[in-house]
Amino acid sequence: MRKLLNVFLLVSLASAILLLTISRMNAAQGLTSGNTLTIFNWGDYIDATLVKQFEDETGVKVIYETFDSNEAMMTKIEQGGTTYDIAVPSEYMIDKMRQENLLITLDHSKLPNLKNIDERFMDLPFDPDNKFSVPYFWGTVGIVYNSTMLDGIEIDSWNDLWNPKLKNEIFLIDGAREVIGMGLNSLGYSLNDINKEHLREAKEKLDSLTPNVKAIVGDEARTLLENREAAIGLVWSGVASEIMYENEELEYVVPKEGSNLWFDNMVIPKTAKNVEAAHQFINFILDAKIAAQNTEYVSYSTPNKEALKHMPEEMVNDQRFYPPAELTEKLEVYENLGKKNLAYYNELFLEFKMHRK
Amino acid sequence: MANAIIEFKSVTKQYDNDPPVLDDVSFEIERGKFYTLLGPSGCGKTTILRLIAGFTEASDGEIYFNNKITNHVPANKRQVNTVFQDYALFPHLNVFENVAFGLRIKKMKNAEIEQKVKEALSFVNLEGYENREIREMSGGQRQRVAIARAIVNEPEVILLDEPLSALDLKLRTEMQYELRELQRRLGITFIFVTHDQEEALAMSDEIFVINKGKIQQSGTPTDIYDEPINRFVADFIGESNIVTGKMVQDQLVEMVGKRFECVDGGFQSNEPVEIVIRPEDLEITTVERGKLQVKVDSQLFRGVHYEISSYDQDGNEWLVHSTKKAVVGEEIGLYFDPEAIHVMRFNETEEEFDKRLEAYTDGSGHGK
Amino acid sequence: MENKVTRQLYMVPYVLWIVLFVIAPILLVLYYSFFNIEGQLSLDNYQKFFTPVYLKMTLSSFWYAFLITAITLLVAYPTAYLLTKTKHKHLWLLLIIVPSWINLLLKAYAFLGIFGTFGAANQFLELIGIGTQQILFTDFSFIFVSVYIFIPFMILPIFNSLNQLNPTLLDAANDLGASKWMTFKRVIFPLTIDGVKSGCQVVFIPALSLFMLTRLIAGNRVITLGTAIEQHFLVTQDWGMGSTIAVFLIIFMFLIMFLTGTKKRGV
């Protein structure tokens, strides 16, 4: 009993010393708990040195937290346990949060760098006039493939994946809209189709893809594809560019039937405490050079047209990740389909997963 | 010996490089008798039991069972059953199933099992307890279940490992009678392990006194009590007054500076010896009439007698059991018969001891 | 009188804990389960549970949980038995338990590497002439990794009950003519059944709702009720349906606890 008490005291003491040291170090850097900014972002979605740079320039202490799905993020913001000052949701979620009054209107006068953003990515249907959000990154959904493993099979359409020679060669990402969307696109339907018959049809078509699907995976898709575990993956463009950098055999294509065009935008949730610093940070990220550095790190496509001037040319000219306007026009942005339709998507996806047994 | 059921020939049991637990032990067990292995804890008596049961194997020597070497026969194939110190009843089985355990292993028919279990339970006076759980039974009852579980298998030998040690005094005495009685009725060999000399004296046909991995002495209770072979046995069995002295000649011994007549013989003249006189053989008398003069140091009332501790001039303690009361601090005399003196040779083996005894008592036993 | 008051005072933290962290969450889950996706009070979710999709899922959850528990038991029991026979048994036990301190995700990722097409397992198969096999994303890999993760939780209670077993009972059985196997069947196993039961509970119940491994190791080829709950709460945001599945899981758990419930025996 005495021993236990001693251990307890020791641990407490050690924690206290640790806390004290941290606060001393923070104080030495001019960071005080009064001026903090809490950022809620996707995992590995910012160059950490930029956060440090922002702290040094402004004296604001940044607390950085991550999430791995839009829904998880929204759930946390709705609950309001933590006061997030900035979040980075995707477009359909911004639409939803906007409708549910979870966002604060942005003060454009505090965001002079907003002029750097390409007109193409401004004033989109999910947030007219960018009242609530500012583009952070954008990208597509497509197919990444390892040409050396395919025996000359060409891939430029969704329907190419149904080739019986591709048995057990495909990784799908674990996302209902992406996978069902692939089914819809392959049949020539819209990604935002809510016609139940079309959706059923898409699901049945997906069922017939089953023999070719090796696994439905999450973030680990990167490692798996990089390590040649399978030849093909349905992924987001950012994932593709990242692993293509690691493994040069990999190629990325946006299927010709069409695909998803997505945006991740920065917003200030209702829960924000430090709205001033939030604006400061958004403007900081919109700076051309900063955005360029961030893009090189994250390797998704930047909407910042001024930033492109500070980036390596082979990156900017890569049509796979910076497709020309005429191509992006063919792509669809996810619409907020409403809970009920979304539930139907998920149910079909679940059934598809079950079918694989 | 034709009637021997178990025989140990130079059996040694040793773990690694520790001193042997059993050191070159030989003995015979006859059919149908009640044997007791008596000794202090750690003397090796339980090891003998485990060797007979087959729970452990001898490091050296042979063990015979019905004249067949049995060293490597596994325990479950031996005609021997054990009653364990903590009874080792199976807590998940009721009384009936505990007793039936061995029979079920033999795949006996249910009707037969039922009959035999009932018989065994009635043997130990536990009729009607068949469906009790073990945890519902008292210590004495558990003891009986354990015995029933052993006898139901009709073994040739039953081994009992300090089975009474967990019982209170009254129950223990009762069970001593019962066990003895049970052995007579069954007519099979019992080998009983205990460190309680009273228990051993009360129950046994034969006692093996064991110390430090060796059998010190074996014989009937009276033999061992009256003629202990050495200081250890004398001390361990009953209360003893032991002093050193020398054998002037046969039938004459010298101790505490005086010479006394005795009945022992077969010694060299002036051989140094140890002398035992049992407390109950000392009689209180006047200083003048006493063979020894002592001063009473303390006195305890023991119920049937007084236990008096006294000292002679040389500082030897003399324990006296007397129905007469003494006065503490008073000088008294102690009287004893020549037969009360028992002389022991130093380092005499049991064999030599027996030979000597035979030589001077012309084979008719130690005259008393 | 004062004694009674202080005793009741001591009960306060316990009662608070039970109410706040056991009863309240269960009631909350039950409450949510009666709301359909549009937030209306209804029994839709319960109706939906009895559709082929969810019934099939339940069945497959039970099947995998059963397989995992059975194999874990088959491996854990002899291991625990051997452990009790070793000289430094508590040290060996510790060594077996240590891996359970490592983060589950970390272990799962490690297996991704080991079982991959070019991983250590396949290199070994290649070496002994069997050749590269598809190991990852199969039933085998899923069950293997699950068993690996659950083994310490099965070994611990079995080890404890074996360790408490009075060794004289084994001598007694042996003495009464029982062979080693008979002793195991009639004495050791019945006397350690409580350890086996609690081990099975500790493994079966979480195995029923495994979700992370179903994706990482089984590549979503195995769908359990846990996967569905995760999806409903985090993706669909259909808390009602998620709660309904949770309600059924809770019912299953109580049923299992009840079925494997133990009468206390002691001597």
Automatic annotation (TrEMBL), chain A:
A Gene Ontology term for the protein's cellular component: periplasmic space
One BP term from GO: polyamine transport
Keywords: Periplasm, Signal, Transport
Signal peptide boundaries: 1-27
Cell compartment(s), UniProt: Periplasm
Main location: periplasm
Name the record gives this protein: Spermidine/putrescine-binding periplasmic protein
Organism: Pseudoneobacillus rhizosphaerae
Native organism taxonomy: Bacteria, Bacillati, Bacillota, Bacilli, Bacillales
Record gene name: potD
Automatic annotation (TrEMBL), chain B:
CDD domains: ABC_PotA_N
Domain ABC transporter: 6-237
Gene3D superfamilies to which the protein is assigned, alphabetical: 2.40.50.100, P-loop containing nucleotide triphosphate hydrolases
GO molecular function ontology, one term from the record: ABC-type putrescine transporter activity
UniProt catalytic activity: ATP + H2O + polyamine-[polyamine-binding protein]Side 1 = ADP + phosphate + polyamineSide 2 + [polyamine-binding protein]Side 1
Enzyme Commission number(s) from the entry: 7.6.2.11
InterPro entries hit by this protein: AAA+_ATPase, ABC_SmlMolc_Importer, ABC_transporter-like_ATP-bd, ABC_transporter-like_CS, Mo/tungstate-bd_C_term_dom, P-loop_NTPase, PotA-like, PotA_ATP-bd
Domain of life according to the entry: Bacteria
Family matches, as Pfam families: ABC_tran, TOBE_2
Function per UniProt: Part of the ABC transporter complex PotABCD involved in spermidine/putrescine import. Responsible for energy coupling to the transport system.
Quaternary assembly: The complex is composed of two ATP-binding proteins (PotA), two transmembrane proteins (PotB and PotC) and a solute-binding protein (PotD).
Protein's name according to its UniProt entry: Spermidine/putrescine import ATP-binding protein PotA
Organism of provenance: Pseudoneobacillus rhizosphaerae
Lineage: Bacteria, Bacillati, Bacillota, Bacilli, Bacillales
TrEMBL record, chain C:
Alphabetical list of SUPFAM superfamilies matching this protein: MetI-like (SSF161098)
Subcellular location: Cell membrane
Cellular component, GO annotation: plasma membrane
PROSITE patterns on file: ABC_TM1
Classification via InterPro entries: MetI-like (IPR000515), MetI-like_sf (IPR035906)
Family, similarity comment: Belongs to the binding-protein-dependent transport system permease family. CysTW subfamily.
UniProt name for this protein: Spermidine/putrescine transport system permease protein PotB
Origin species: Pseudoneobacillus rhizosphaerae
